[in-house]
């Protein structure tokens, strides 16, 4: 069970435990130490990942140069609400949310425009349509037709998973690895 929890936390995914019914009804006994058994310990602390200083400087230059900066947050930003709010306040930007990132920010913040995409809001659509700079935080939003036109916006993408970088939009700038926080 400890291993399943650790895998779920580290991979930000689901894991499954299948226990036979008769085993569930037995009283707990400490497992024996013998050949072929797997033992596990409790606890997990995610490693700290920090982008290179030159990448942070380049991202800051792009974001500071933008006149109509927009932020898109996704499920990868879950647990980073305070940081997302701090960045949005610092940049004075509006934020659209991918459906899987809906819980990142409350909808009652004046600068949150709601969801984007097939189930999105008109303000989020207009935000993407009119931006010249896009900051994407933890999102692999799948519907590129709801993002700015190709080459319209310079962009910075922050994500933990390199496989998610530049997946939906041809970035004209850089991608950063987002620090994990637990």
UniProtKB/TrEMBL annotation:
Residues 56-170 form the Thiamine pyrophosphate enzyme central domain. It comes from the Bacteria. InterPro entries: DHS-like_NAD/FAD-binding_dom, POXB-like, Thiamin_PyroP_enz_cen_dom. Gene3D superfamilies: TPP-binding domain. This is Thiamine pyrophosphate-dependent acetolactate synthase large subunit-like protein. It comes from Pseudorhizobium tarimense.
